[in-house]
Amino acid sequence: MSLSFLLEIGTEEIPDWMIAGALESLRGQLESLGIAARMDATPRRLVARAEGLPERLPDTEERVMGPRKSAGEKALEGFARKQGVAPSDLSVEGEHYTYLRRKAGRAMIAVLAESLPAIILKITFPKTMYWTGKTGPRFIRPIRWIVALLGSSIIPFELAGVRAGAMTFGHRVAHASACSGGLQSAVPVTIETYEQTLRDNFVILSATERRKKIETEIVALGARLKPDAALLETLVYLTEYPTPILGEFDPRFLELPEEVLITVMRHHQKYFSVEDASGHLAPRFVAVMNTSADPEGLVRRGNERVLRARFNDARFFWQADQRKKLADRVADLAHVTFQAKLGSYLEKTERVVEMVRSLGGNENAQRAARLAKCDLTTELVKEFTELQGVVGGLYARAQGEPEEVWQAIYDHYKPESMEDSIPRHETARLVSLADKLDTLRGCFRVGMAPTGSRDPFALRRAAQGVVKIIVEGGMSIPLEGLIAGDPQLTEFFEERVKFYFRDVRGFAYDEVNAAIGAGWSDLPELAARLLRLQKIRLSPDFEPLAASFKRIKNILRQAGFTGGVFDPALLEPGPERELFDEIIRAAGQPIETMIGALRPKVDLFFDKVLVNAPDPAVRANRLAMLHGLLEQFRTFADFSEIVTNS
Amino acid sequence: MSSFQEIIFKLKQYWAERGCIIQEPYDVEVGAGTMCPETFLRVLGPKPYRVAYVQPSRRPADGRYGENPNRLYKHSQLQVILKPSPADVIDQYLGSLEAVGIDLRQHDIKFEEDNWEAPTLGAWGVGWQVMLDGLEITQFTYFQQCGGIDLDVVPAELTYGLERLTAFLQVKDSVYDIEWAPGFTYGDVRFQDELQFSVYNFEMAEVGTLWKLFDLHEGEAARLLSAYPKYPEKARFPLLPAYDQVLKCSNLFNTLDARGAISVTERVGVIQRVRKLAVGVAQAWADQQGAAQ
Q1: Could you say which of A229, A289, A302, B247 has the lowest number of CB atoms within 10 Å?
Q2: Is the ipTM of this complex over 0.90?
Q3: Which of residues 50-109 of B touch A (CB under 8 A)?
């Protein structure tokens, strides 16, 4: 008979962003028990369900080796007694008595009762707590109930003082038995009724269904949202019964910059922003409740009041900050720490201005660099740190700074991710680069390079940003020169360059290695070479030639080639001479032409000519010619890095 | 409609009925109810404890001269400590909201992750900010460590922002407009505090004097702490007075900070100095309680 399985771990509210990972961890562990489970979750429950579990694990057999046939009767009896059988139950195999021990498979319910406590406690979370006492179990939040059923039986186990059972809990407040007065009451379930019982108690178990409910109901509200997939995901896992509502705010707040309004709504209130027909921010928002309805509009009015207070704060800060211009705040940066070992933001600012100047930045670029960090002293950025840069740019604009300057300040933290765009113009790019490079150089100098997953200063992102800006901005920046003198930083950057072209731009890893093998001091040029390499690779001549190059490299290495004088007089007529003539002819031509012309000559050479000629002078001459051939491509790519099928 | 003081009465009554000792505010300036000995020291050790008190909490940098409708130099927290935390702690908490007249079925309540950490106290915990119709009304924390010590028993700490909660219930946009008692607004009672302390903290506090006071209080706390190990009768050693000195230091630090008198390089160092004292008291206290058993 096959059985269904249900496990519900009832907890206090789990942080929304940890839920997906926890489910994956639990699923993997059940899999190791042979259970292929479907996973679901709300903030208060992690749920695994499966069908077709056997009632018992299969029986097993084990052959136990006994005494030799030649051993006496006593030994035979002793062995049989030890196995708990009569001597007649034993059989003979080769020279020994043996006993075939059959072991009945254990009942699945017993296996589960034994394994589930450990499995549950092994679910991985980024942070855990204890709650029953210092030596008690650790989990993300306290476990308050457990439903564990195999068929119609409760899987008997206990964890953190909670006995597994067949009682679940509905929504904290909106559940059906609310009218009975108590806030929380347990509800009995079976595997068959589980999901429906939850639904009756205002819990939608499926995240997909919750997402869909939010989306369709927002459409029904007639609101056009600024799309925000990440916020939607947060709300799906922050609610058990999501219901969106539409609220309004005073249109006069629209005088404040849109960036500020959206940040308040999104980051502080988890509201969606709403657009009008022309794509401008409308004085409305969508909040997602964790309950079924707001018939009297109490929740809507409450949210509107909170937002009004927040917007009032923002307006208060905006106005207060205007009393002191950004330009008058530079000296105040002496009081803002950049990093304990790297001093204040004033010191950083001075270094960045200097770097911008040395990279050829004009007056506007230098001014933007000087003002870029001043918004760290404003009330608005102290309140909304995620708006650093943006607020500085907005203030600079309001204070009449030239467009190039305010835009450079506004953009200088970009790109914030690999999907984000780079700063909008050359001036902004220069400021952004200098700021990031200064951070990288400083942190590496004082020993704060990232290790493993620890990267508290987001140095990987900064370096990736530098690469992206230089490449996509087509900038001629001597990157290797700027980080020279720090081998660790150079190596770190080479890794980031590879990552960018491989993972962000989608080039094959061997193409990236080959192109980087010919240098990466000029990143836009490297990008151009990669594009050509990608095309060249499609030509039928390329891979065979690359394979030959790898062979040449091996030959040179094995021969311990360190250089030598090439003498054309030593060439033999035939394939060797022909190859040489082709090398001479091809020199200076585009790589694309060279490859087609060289490939047959190289093939013929290796087919007919023995590099390791008996005459040492001829051998040395051949090695020198092959080395010369490789050198022709040296500034383009190291073809021996290309992985070929041959 | 309940007045500010009625809401306080109801909450105290509610928690008293659930076995809490009702304490009056601690009489030394603190930045948060957590810093009172009733929380900071009582959470240490294995002894169960349940207490609730209103604590005026001073945050000099948050002063706004009484001009900002939501931000205060001194706001009032209702602090509840349930040690150990009961299994139905969240239901008990939700019950307290009903007790002040919130019909939860008509509102939206969410528990959003918010972990608490106080570096100057060597303390941290995990928990949530409790959001009611989008307004943060309570900080809910399961303490894990205090004074750098892993706690034997995990207490739940509930911190209600009383002004916010009242403004919500009275539907007021400014805390100054909430009714404190019939005929008296919050502004009538507290506006002068907000204005005068803002002027003092931001404009007139004498930096040299404050530093001198800081050094004196720090010295006194350190003197006591260094005497503890050799003191023969541990049970009567004055650790509570030593802790008062630490609280003085903490408030002076906050005032100096608001005054803009603490430079970058000093800041980390001063936090470290306060932390050292707080951790020192906590550890001695744990030892003293252990010795008393």
Answers
A1: A229
A2: yes
A3: 67-71, 84-85, 87-88, 90-91, 94-95, 98, 104-109
Res A292 pLDDT > 50: yes
Q: And the tokens for B33? A: 């109810």
| Cβ contacts from A onto B, under 8 A | 118
- Could you identify the residue written with the tokens 């839920």? A19
**Looking at the predicted structure, is the pLDDT value of residue A474 above 50?**
yes
What is the per-residue pLDDT across B52-78, written as a single tens digit (0 to 9) for each? Answer: 999 999 999 999 899 888 889 999 999
Does A236 reach chain B within 8 Å, measured CB to CB?
no
List A residues 166-195 in contact with B (Cβ-Cβ < 8 A): 172-174, 178, 183-184
- Is A19 in a helix, a strand, or coil? helix
Record the tokens describing residue B194, joined without a space: 């907000």
Cβ burial of A257 (10 Å; 0-12, 13-18, 19+) is: buried
Residue the block writes with tokens 């800060």: A317
Q: Tell me which DSSP letter residue A179 carries.
A: G
**What pLDDT sits at residue A181?**
45
Residues of B in contact with A301 (CB under 8 A): 133
Q: Which domains does chain B have, with CATH numbers?
A: 4-200 (3.30.930.10), 206-292 (1.20.58.180)
DSSP letter string over A600-635?
A: HHHHHHHHH--SS-SSHHHHHHHHHHHHHHHHHHTT
Confidence tier at A131 by pLDDT (50, 70, 90): very high
Put simply, whether B133 touches A (Cβ < 8 Å) is yes
pLDDT at B293: 61
Sorted by sequence, the CB contacts under 8 Å of residue A331 that are 6+ apart come out as A346
Amino acid, res. A387: L
3-state secondary structure labels for all residues of A481-501: HHCCCCHHHHHHHHHHHHHHH
pLDDT tens for A221-245 read 998 998 899 999 999 999 999 999 9
What is the three-class DSSP state of B277?
A: helix
Q: Give the Cα separation of A212 and A220 in Å (integer).
A: 12
Give the CA diameter of chain A.
Answer: 109
Sorted by sequence, the CB contacts under 8 Å of residue A337 that are 6+ apart come out as: A343, A344, A345, B264, B267, B268
Q: Which residues of chain B have pLDDT under 70?
A: 263-265, 292-293
Burial per residue of A608-626, b for 16 or more beta-carbon CB atoms within 10 angstroms, e otherwise: eeebebeeeebbbbbbbbb
**Tokens representing B236?**
């009567």
Rounded to 5 degrees, what are φ and ψ at B95?
-60, -35
pLDDT in the model for residue A182: 47
CA distance B182 to B201: 32
Q: Which residues of A35-44 are buried (b: 16+ CB within 10 A; e: fewer)?
A: bebebbbbbb
Q: B168 in contact with A at a CB cutoff of 8 Å? A: yes
Task: Give whole-number Cα distances, A323 to A374, A378, A405, A409, in Å.
Answer: 14, 10, 20, 19
Output the pLDDT for position A175.
Answer: 60
Give the C-alpha distances (Å, rounded to integers) separating A463 from A373, A430, A460, B260.
19, 14, 5, 34
| A550: CB partners within 8 A, 6+ apart | A639, A640, A642, A644
Separation between Cα atoms, residue A111 and residue B5, nearest integer Å: 58
Average pLDDT of the residues in A458-476:
93
Is B133 within 8 Å of A131 when comparing Cβ atoms? no
d(CA A51, CA A3): 6
On chain B, the residues whose CB falls within 8 A of the CB of A15 are 113
| A470, amino acid identity | I
Mean pLDDT of A485-505: 91
Nearest to B182 by CA among B2, B18, B50: B2
